[in-house]
Specification:
Radius of gyration: 19 Å
Number of helices: 11
CATH architecture of the largest domain: 3-Layer(aba) Sandwich
Largest sheet: 7 strands, parallel
Strand order of the largest sheet: 3-2-1-4-5-7-11
Number of strands: 13
Shape: globular
Order of helices and strands: EHEHEHEHEEHEEHEEHEHEHEHH
CATH superfamily of the largest domain: NAD(P)-binding Rossmann-like Domain
Length: 291
């Protein structure tokens, strides 16, 4: 009996949970919000409150019965909160566990001068949050190795989908076409995160996989394409030097790489949306872009 637990059922975690419901016998997910917990129950996900500050008795019981665990909670300067709580609990906390999937970020690669990177490329993260992610990857890998449990590290780029996309930004007036020559970003539709996790859960591979679409692209092109589908004029282009970005915003533009998904596709996974063109056109056509 497959019993799945998603630690951190946010935007991506809920998409994973909804897909897992169709494949496994039991799915539980954690959230910090009592309102979201009620919504989980309505769609068949066992809701659990968890803020990264100790496991409740209910969550500890689910952990003991879980066969597959997906971790989608970000670390901070104190480390990975889930790992810290597991260490505090001690002992054989997950005796039925057969697989762990840790959702990480392609930010761990740092800047590669817009060259292609794969899972063998050196990691040289520049931001603190990416360094914390790389440390968390190592902690989960060691955890699995010590217990002879396969751990899949799934490195993700920018995530979009219903409710989080260029259409929404255009409607809300927050879309900007910032142009930095040569800059590209990597992205993935949330449906492919759900699809890839379910696919990998069947094989339970040990190791690192990049999950990004086939077309790293300049961000201003995505906005222009969405505006074209909507039949409106895109916002004007803004030179990067004049964009007045926040420090975090500027940090995203300080790195450039093209993330290869070759390893995952060679394993047999087929992307649902190979680029933003197909994904945005589908969301607009089916009127699901609002979420």
């Amino acid at each position: 009996m497959t019993r799945a637990l998603i630690l951190g059922a946010g935007y991506s975690g809920q998409a994973i949970a909804r897909e897992l419901i169709e494949e496994v016998e039991f799915v539980a997910g954690t959230t910090r919000s009592t309102e979201k917990a009620a919504a989980f129950a309505a769609i068949g996900i066992e809701p659990l409150l968890y803020a990264g500050e100790g496991f409740s008795p209910e969550l500890a019981d689910i952990l003991r019965e879980a066969t597959c665990v997906v971790v989608s909670i970000a670390p901070d300067k104190g480390g990975d909160p889930v790992m810290a709580d597991l260490r505090r609990l001690g002992g054989e906390t997950m005796p039925e566990l057969r697989w762990i999937c840790y959702l990480s970020t392609v930010g761990v690669y740092g800047d590669h001068g817009c060259a292609w990177v794969d899972e063998e490329s050196p990691c040289r993260p520049t931001s603190a949050r990416s360094r914390w992610r790389l440390e968390a990857e190592g902690a989960w890998t060691a955890f699995g190795r010590d217990r002879n449990i396969p751990v899949t590290i799934l490195r993700l780029p920018g995530i979009y989908g219903p409710g989080r996309n260029a259409f929404v930004n255009l409607v809300e007036g927050t879309a900007r076409r910032i142009v930095k020559p040569g800059q590209v970003f990597n992205r993935i539709h949330v449906a492919d995160i759900a699809g890839a996790v379910c696919y990998l859960m069947r094989a339970k591979p040990d190791g690192i996989f990049n999950l990004s679409d086939d077309e790293p692209s300049p961000p201003q092109d995505v906005v222009a394409f969405a505006a074209g589908l909507m039949g409106i004029e895109p916002p004007p282009e803004i030179p990067f030097e004049e964009a007045n970005l926040s420090p975090m915003g500027r940090s995203f533009y300080s790195e450039c790489k093209r993330v290869s998904n070759g390893k995952l596709k060679t394993s047999g996974y087929r992307l649902r949306y190979s680029s933003y063109h197909e994904a945005l056109a589908s969301m607009w056509r089916e009127n699901v872009w609002r979420g």
